[in-house]
């Protein structure tokens, strides 16, 4: 899920794992997002797949039993630490012989023209400085009639958590993820691809424990900088006494995947 280093936030997978954990613990849809995305891919034997911004490799280690035996998978991330974690996570559950791990930038991919049947970019294009340049590179490395899967969020995704965070952390109303989101991604994809379809993942969070929510918010670099000492105590008290006054915190999730053809 990462391609652009955001300070120290994505040096390795620790912060991302904290964020994933909240969804694993409290999502109402028991088919997790990575499992759902994988079910959309229609993977077959003897094809070449590229995932850009692979993060800790969750798409693959969570679905290792469903990976075709004879398939060529290349995982790319700008963070060397993420790639190391991805390799380790995959090797814990299955052989990595079908995998290549490449430290690279989506804006300048080190691959030949028309090399891949499928390219995947999950929750990462909004981090790319020049999104159009990144999409042009994806198109370049895709084979004719190849398929590009790009997942992202709606501007309303996790709205309730964002409202809490803004009470204590000075963050912009327009989030980084708004640069390539459900509301505007199709317009950007249309400049490079055809036959674009959006599929939404139906889900929400029913959070019943305060600490995983606190950890989730604190995994953001801005929160780590701001919520220290007495400010952290005030923040933690608010979460425990106000947010969880009824014992349950309901959060809307709005995420989906755009499936585009070259």
What would your notes on this structure say?
The chain has 262 residues and is of the alpha/beta class. It has a single domain (14-157, 173-205, 254-261), classed as Vaccinia Virus protein VP39 (Rossmann fold, 3-Layer(aba) Sandwich). The chain is built from 10 helices and 7 strands. It has a 7-stranded mixed β-sheet with strand order 3-2-1-4-5-7-6, sandwiched between helices. The longest helix has 14 residues, at 80-93. The radius of gyration is 19 Å and the shape is globular. The two termini are 22 Å apart. 35% of the residues are buried.
Mean pLDDT score: 92
What best-fitting shape do the alpha-carbon axes yield?
A: globular
Q: Tell me about the biggest sheet?
A: 7 strands, mixed
CATH topology: Rossmann fold
List keywords for this structure.
262 residues, alpha/beta, Rossmann fold, seven-stranded mixed beta sheet, 10 helices, 36% helix, 24% strand, disordered N terminus
Write the layout of secondary structure elements.
Blueprint: H1 14-26, H2 33-40, E1 48-52, H3 58-61, E2 72-77, H4 80-93, E3 99-103, E4 116-122, H5 131-141, E5 142-153, H6 159-168, H7 185-189, E6 194-207, H8 210-218, H9 221-226, H10 230-243, E7 249-261
Parallel strand pairs: 1-2, 1-4, 2-3, 4-5
Antiparallel strand pairs: 5-7, 6-7
Helix pairs in contact: 1-8
What is the compact description of this entry?
The chain has 10 helices and 7 strands. It is an alpha/beta fold and 262 residues long.
């Amino acid at each position: 899920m990462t391609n652009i280093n955001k300070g120290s936030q994505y040096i390795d997978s620790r912060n991302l794992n904290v964020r994933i954990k909240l969804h694993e613990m409290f999502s109402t849809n028991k088919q997790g997002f990575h499992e759902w995305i994988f079910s959309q891919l229609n993977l077959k034997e003897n094809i070449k797949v590229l995932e850009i911004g692979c993060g800790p490799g969750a798409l693959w280690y969570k679905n290792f039993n469903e990976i075709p035996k004879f398939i060529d998978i290349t995982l790319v991330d700008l963070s060397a630490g993420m790639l190391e974690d991805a390799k380790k996570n995959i090797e814990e559950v299955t052989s990595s012989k079908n995998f290549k791990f490449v430290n690279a930038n989506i804006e300048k991919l080190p691959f030949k023209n028309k090399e891949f049947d499928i390219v995947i970019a999950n929750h990462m294009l909004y981090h790319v400085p020049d999104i159009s340049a990144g999409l042009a590179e994806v198109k370049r490395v895709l084979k004719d009639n190849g398929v590009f899967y790009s997942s992202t969020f709606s501007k309303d995704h996790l709205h309730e958590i964002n409202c809490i965070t803004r009470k204590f952390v000075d963050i912009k109303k327009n989030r980084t993820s708004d640069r390539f989101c459900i509301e505007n991604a199709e317009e950007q994809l249309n400049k490079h691809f055809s036959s674009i379809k959006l599929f939404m993942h139906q889900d929400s969070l029913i959070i019943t424990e305060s600490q995983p929510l606190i950890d989730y918010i604190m995994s953001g670099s801005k929160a780590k900088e701001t919520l220290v000492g007495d400010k952290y105590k005030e923040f933690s008290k608010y979460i425990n006494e106000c947010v969880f006054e009824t014992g349950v915190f309901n959060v809307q999730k709005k995420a989906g995947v755009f499936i585009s053809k070259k």
